[in-house]
Amino acid sequence: MESMKGEVVLNIPAQKAWEMYRDDEIISKINPNMLARAEYIEGDGSPGSLRVFKLGPGYVRESTEKIEKVEAGRSITYSVIGGELRNMYDPYKATFSFIPLRGQEGEKCIAEWKAEFKPLSPSIPPPEKAKDAALGFLKHFDKFQLCR
């Protein structure tokens, strides 16, 4: 299995970023051009729950995710079980983590995206677009927070 990761520094505390990511109503407002809607279709966000992401133009249209692991206030790992990514990679697991920035814990955090994946054929490239989209979306957490 292959993997890739990336991170961005956010000007908000890790706990706040975590709460924003977990709340369907808030996450759907952060950047509607990238993520039009998020919705838990089964469960409450705990392991085993299913969440659908409806993405904006230029991205995969929809992704259905099964939550595998939750470290409350810190990270969430999910497997993609439906949508375009599932047609290219099996498995495809992603983890979003929000880590307090040392020395500035109450002000900043590191938002990390990590994926583990196996392309269904040798011609399928690593999911660079998914990485860029995830990190680009995370960068909007700051802008959204400033607007509220």
From TrEMBL:
InterPro entries recorded = Bet_v_I/MLP, Plant_def-hormone_signal, START-like_dom_sf
Enumerate the spans annotated as Bet v I/Major latex protein domain.
3-148
Q: State any GO BP term from the record.
A: defense response
Entry similarity comment? Belongs to the BetVI family.
| Name recorded for this polypeptide | MLP-like protein 423 isoform X2
In its UniProt entry, the species of origin is given as: Nelumbo nucifera
Gene name for this UniProt entry: LOC104599384
